Amino acid sequence: MDMEFYQFSTPVVLIMLAVFYGGTYLMTKLIRKEEENTDAYMVANERLGIGFASSSMTATWIWAASFYAAATSGYKYGVSGPLHYGLWGALMILFIYPFGQRFRKLAPKAHTLGELIHARHGSSSQLILAVSNILGSTISLMVNFTAAGALVAVLSPLSFQTGVIIAGVGVLSYTLWSGFRAAVFTDFAQLVALMAVAVIIIPAVLFAMGGPETFVSGLGSLTSEQQNFFSREAILEQGAPYFFAVLAYAIGNQTISQRLFAVDEAHIKPTFITATLGYGAIVIGLGMIGLLALAAGIQPVDGDTNNLIPQVVSTYLSPIMVALFFILVIGSLSSTADSDLCALSAIVMADVYGKNIAKDNPNPERMLLIGRITMIVATMVGIVFASFKLDILVMLVFVGALWGTIVFPVIASVFWDKVTNAAFTWSVVIAMILFCVVRFELVPMTGITAYAFEIIGAIGGAVVVGLMAFGFLGVRMGVLVAIVGGIFGLYVSIDFMREYTVLLASLTAFGVSTIVCTVMSLLSTEERFDFRSIGEEVQSYDS
Amino acid sequence: MDAKTAFYAFYILMWPALTLGVLVYICRAVWKDAKAAKENNEDLV
Questions:
Q1: Does the predicted model carry a pTM greater than 0.80?
Q2: Chain B residue set in contact with A, beta carbons under 8 Å
Q3: Cross-strand bridge partners of residue A263
Q4: A331 CA to chain B: closest CA distance, Å?
Q5: B6 Cα to chain A: minimum distance (Å)
Q6: Which residues neighbour A108 within 8 Å (Cβ) at sequence distance 6 or greater?
Q7: How many helices (DSSP H) and strands (DSSP E) are in chain B?
Q8: Predicted complex: ipTM over 0.95
């Protein structure tokens, strides 16, 4: 089927962008204060209600790539494809709330997870978190600005660079002064727009393409794997690697922990349940557009599956719906980009300046200035990197792996008083090295080497399911589920997992960091840690 | 509409329906947050 993208004229697209970013900026004027304080700038004084906290969590978790990747998954893997993107992403939001409750209990006044880890272990462990987040949020900024540039270039005569610059300047303009407060406040409006558009667009596409009957008749052209809700191909190639990647993202990413520290402590659970449902519904729903395109026999323009949603919307829906879609994508990428700016500013303010330069005696006014300068620099870097269209795949893989290696050490550090700074640091370093060995196939994955990594991978899988059970059901069930998961993992993994390099590398990161951290902690003769000292050390910078 | 068609229609349309439900819940929660903030003379965020 031959298709073209709908084209807005230059004035129309400029007006839409001006209305979106101008309206968002005016919204922030409602909450702006002449003198912001550092706690409000970083975590909104730790008392967000369910509504703002859950809308901000959902809006942050959904970025521009979420729709495109979910639709790609639907297009590639068929009926189960959207679930293997959206469901696992959603479940990970749910998974982290028990750990979030623990973080808040230990450090009620924290602004970053790095501060908590600094109080627990010291600078080296904290800086591992800080560096991973600076890299991760910079990449995320670049990806979101790139998505804005691509959308503007596809749907209007404006250039890619123009779209990148407008998005960068637009996001910075409304986030700069009030920081996290502005991000949370505007996230609500952006999410409402995004959800309302999703509610309209998904049924509109289904019926514009001929309705359920036409869709079902098109299913006959799918392969048997694509028609199978329990497709092994979809699980191994999409679901499982994404599951482990997004778990690492949930624990390590400052945009998430910042919201954990910002929500009123009593509302953590309902906030995360609401965000789980919201994220799952929106992303899986929009992923269905990829499945509809597959059943209709649509070929993506230039073979790029990222074109699927704009292509389908352009072809089957009216210009007004295309405009709504445009706002949906701009809203999703802006809400994530403003969260990245806030995360970066909080890390530089608290982890770099507060803990390592001012040594817990910072000047609050200088701290705020540093936060704002960080946002300006980060936006410029994001715009420049996006404009050059740099290939960031390797960096993305590296950051994902770094977050994978810290999952066990971070969680163990907040529950187990034997974990040491050396165990934390070395477990991350060694796991990163072995991750690279597997991911970039630095040694031939055959014979005893392959068996060794498959066993480590099975341990990694056991750790993940064990941690999930531990979070909700306690330590006994966690250990039991880990043992059962490990035995099942060994049965599945041996002689098989070596073929799935991406998945094996992720599991290796989890497995190695767990083994090294556990062994070094058990062998340590250091005094056991007193968790009460964390709350005493991590305090507000304003008082 | 046969059972298979009905099933797939439900499978695709349940997600926007769930989105609508969450949207209503979040709006209601924000309205309550705003009301509580006004009563306690506190900032909204």
A1: yes
A2: 1, 4-6, 8-9, 11-13, 15-16, 18-23, 25-33, 36-37, 42-45
A3: A48
A4: 15
A5: 8
A6: A46, A265, A535
A7: 1, 0
A8: yes
